[in-house]
Design brief:
globular, mainly alpha, about 190 residues, single chain, 9 helices
Length: about 190
């Protein structure tokens, strides 16, 4: 069975009263949810709080998950919304990059040394993106999600996601110059 199928079965088991099923869902997804929250909030403690809040919301609203999209898509939507709610409550935007030692590992990097060198520069540039572009670029390029999944998570049309990713990448390219071309940064039409 696929991860999507497994998740749907676990949600159904949880709704039927099996509390261990929710623990399994959490174990399967908490690392990626935390990594997403950390990239948005740029603070480890806040990311832990956002991760916990995300799973509390999912626990309470599991009955509203209808299975029309993947559970992970729904979960990411809750996580992103939770992070931006936290930022709005504090009246701030993520602007301070994390020290390199707190970043989740970049498993997609072919050359770990190059990845480590570029990470602080990239994190700083990402932190300056306007709120409308940041989540689309983060989910598409850093999390490696397909653009259709990003559209579902952000609850916006696919064309809007493509535009935001393109414009976000353009802003990053302006800030970073040729650094991204050297690092193998994904092209605009990837992940569809």
């Amino acid at each position: 069975m696929s991860r999507t199928g497994d998740d749907f079965v676990l949600v159904q088991r949880y709704l039927a009263g099996d509390g261990r099923a929710f623990d399994q869902l959490m174990a399967a997804h908490e690392g990626r949810v935390f990594a997403t929250c950390l990239r948005i909030l740029r603070d480890r403690e806040e990311a832990l709080d956002a991760t916990q809040e995300t799973f509390i919301i999912v626990l309470r609203k599991a009955g509203s998950f209808e299975g029309r999209s993947a559970f992970s898509t729904w979960l990411y939507r809750v996580a992103v919304n939770t992070c931006y709610t936290m930022l709005r409550k504090k009246g701030r935007h993520p602007t301070t990059p994390l020290p390199g030692t707190h970043d989740p590992p970049d498993l997609s990097a072919a050359d770990r040394f190059s990845s480590a060198e570029l990470r602080p520069i990239l994190e700083e540039a990402l932190a300056t993106l306007p709120e409308e572009f940041g989540p689309a670029v983060l989910l598409s390029d850093l999390e490696g999600l397909p653009l259709r999944s990003v559209a579902e998570i952000l609850e916006i049309p696919l064309g809007t996601v493509k535009s935001r990713v393109f414009r976000g990448r353009k802003l990053l390219a302006e800030q970073l110059g040729n650094l991204m071309a050297l690092s193998g940064y994904p092209k605009e039409d990837e992940h569809e």
